[in-house]
Amino acid sequence: MAAMELRLPVPRKVVSQGLARGSDKHLVAPGDTITTDTGYMRGHGTYMGDEKLVASVAGAVERVNKLICVKALKTRYNGEVGDIVVGRITEVQQKRWKVETNARLDSVLLLSSMNLPGGELRRRSAEDELAMRDYLQEGDLISAEVQAVFSDGAVSLHTRSLKYGKLGQGVLVQVSPSLVKRQKTHFHDLPCGASVILGNNGFIWIYPTPEQKDEEAGGFVTNLEPVPLHDREVISRLRNCILALVAQKLMLYDTSILYCYEASLPHQIKDILKPEVMQEIVLETRHRLLELEG
Amino acid sequence: MKETPLSNCERRFLLRAIEERKRLDGRQSYDYRNVRISFGADYGCCIVELGRTKVLGQVSCELVSPKLNRATEGILFFNLELSPMASPAFEPGRQSELLVKLNRLLERCLRNSKCIDTESLCVVAGVKVWQIRVDLHLLNHDGNIIDAASIAAIVALCHFRRPDVSVQGDEVTLYTPEERDPVPLSIHHMPICVSFAFFQQGTYLLVDPSEREERVMDGLLVIAMNKHREICTIQSSGGIMLLKDQVLRCSKITGVKVAEITELIQKALENDRKVRKEGGKFGFAESIPNQKISAFKMERAPVDTNDVEEQAEEIITKADPPSEVFAKPILQTPGTAQIGEGIENSWGDLEESEREEQEEDNSDDATTSGVQKMETEEISGVSKTKKEADTIILSDSEEEVVVVLEPEETRKKTRTHTSAKQENSSSKKTFNKKRKKKRTTH
Amino acid sequence: MAGLELLSDEGYRVDGRRAGELRKVRARMGVFAQADGSAYIEQGNTKVLAVVYGPHEMRGSRSKALHDRALVNCQYSMATFSTGERKRRPHGDRKSSEMTLHLKQTFEAAILTQLYPRSQIDIYVQVLQADGGNYCASVNAATLATIDAGIPMRDYVCASSAGFIEDTPLADLNYVEEAAGGPQVALALLPKSDQIALLEMNSRLHEDHLDQVIEAAIKACKDIYTVLDQVVREHVHEVTTLLGE
Predict the structure, then answer these.
(1) Strand partners, A67
(2) Residue B72 at interface with chain C, using a CB cutoff of 8 Å
(3) Residue of B nearest to C217 (CA)
(4) pTM reported for the whole predicted model
């Protein structure tokens, strides 16, 4: 039985040659002039230099009526109101927690935006402030929704719903925010036996589907019962599939993850991350998605 | 000690002055400050003063074994120290970015340009060479350390004399200064650094920035040149964007400045040599000027007074006549008096009631009111005569005692602090606010 | 190395290049999946790896955060195996500190830091093999890494070195030419606007030749810009096609 696998380097194959996509997009690099017409409004990724609109990031130009912006290939998370995020508590401050969400400034979770256990609605007192650490400590993972965006770009979160709150047992996968597709809902229960939260900030949480759906605790009590082996296998397979999709730069949403999972079933879980297996699985996923689109 | 940040109004003032091509000390854009070079009693010790920036340079030498890959060359070692003596912003011990930058610049300017003949420092190849060590200490920081330091380094090196050595076969004899005169180092050329400070994204350029100017500059360009117009080092720092023509222009200016400074250095060295030969007094004690006033005589500065009178009359006719009514001093309490009212409050948005007042008596002030305002500002705090105060009402805010100010005539409306006595009283305010000056009608 | 002529009579340099020719440049973006941006560049035998993290919340002392701009934090380090002799380089030594300062200065000028108040952008550069032009290759690698991270910049920052031998300006010096001790210029340029972000010169050069040497360096920077631009466009094209939107 092989204890370790070694690979020799081989020249990379450019994958995009196999895909027939029309390159009708206007691709720019920093310093390129987009237009000299001054009638346009300047959006993200551009700056005005010498009466010309110049691109400041590398990406595709998007034009909506009079607004021109350049969407970069990879950015940090930029919060929008209503997004679902998965974050990690980094600091406990007075009356609020600082949450790391892969954005350019740490997000803020105010004590008043957090649901108290039991779901009571009351003004937060000094005792609540002192008991903050009992609710959430540094290192805890939470799921929350963006309530507002501050002027400097920092995001204010809230967990005012029973589906948000501290996360229990599961696996976290960190990807780039631009790979997570925007959908109506980001909480999915996959038929393969696990559930997944696709945070808009690129943090993806895979966890075993809970038996009962009702949680009166509002998500504070973590369920530490041992997870059965079958569930764990499903979760690790899902995680490897997500990594494979990310490596091949496919957008992540519930359908693509599910198809990838199904395409990977013939392989062993640890083989999924091998380059040729990854390519095969993702290619199959692409085909199935194309068929789905019709 | 953490450096005090420069206030925004000072920064604005300096930048505006530079835009109008004015510098705080009255220099032109391309003028250097006065360079004074004085030598110590020992050879190799000198103090260079560039305006108020002072650098002390000391050269010393030692016989050591050479580096393995350069067996026939001597070793040069440069070190610049920034101690808290120069400026409280420098902290002892910590190697800051500025220190690294200055040291590297000095090293590149003096070592890489090969101004000293290192081959001549070799005594016995592979066994013994001279190690020349140049130590520079900044004694006072008033801007442009690098120029002063480079001048100090090169002057000290030129001034230094090393002990004479003779080699006979295997025997090396080191002569003391008494036995044989010490020998000067062989210096090929003298590189001098010239700094250019850029402002407003490279639009304005100043030579030899002072400390204040350094704080508001966008970036610095240092060009080191010798008098043969060979460039030894160029270094741009501070994140400014330069254009090629700017660099070329600066190099031309550098040529001119370096020629002047080299001449100065030669003269200073020559003076010192003469003094030492003639047996006169030399050393630092002699060079520090006596800072005492020893004469009751003022230097006459010629002033061109040709058209002063005409200009003065012009100004007088244009200006408004001074007002007839002068505000009389009002004594509030023993020790506090008031003349007129203060100038306009510049703290920001006014409260409702104040805004009404302001709208009612908005008037245009003429230039002469400016003069009067100054007087009222100065005098309003000074005590005049000792009379009894009318009333003192204390506010219950946590700040100091609040005094009620009652205007002399009811026509003058003032913004007051407390009490319903005033017709225009508003909410309680603290004593710190300036009062608005109202002009009485002519 | 006496007797080694840096420029032969026929106009060939030590490695067979012409006076104004650059070394072969190979670059790749997105080498690390974990970092926000990463790039690897090979200029002849000089190999440099650059990694960019950010913009992110200030780590360490909050007091250093600038209220209106992002703080650019650089670190330049050379691997112990990068030079001919294995040399352990402590991080605080003067040469790396100077290079770090220069990198920081260059990128503070090029990155639009006003968009990210109170954040920090980290740029880490590691030289894997040093064969002359370390600073220039570092700047080029860091430019690619910053573009890969999606951090807005005014323009590319391309850097190149230039020297002057026997009245001829040479572009892109290798180690042998640098060690010979002649005048060398390192220039970092924003190609579209011809603005010089950093200019550094060592050793003696007569003022009259300055124009020629700077001109040669500017031309070399523009040549590097064409190569880097091509790499970026290919990468962007590939990723956009894969994303398929």
Answers:
(1) A41, A64
(2) no
(3) B244
(4) 0.80
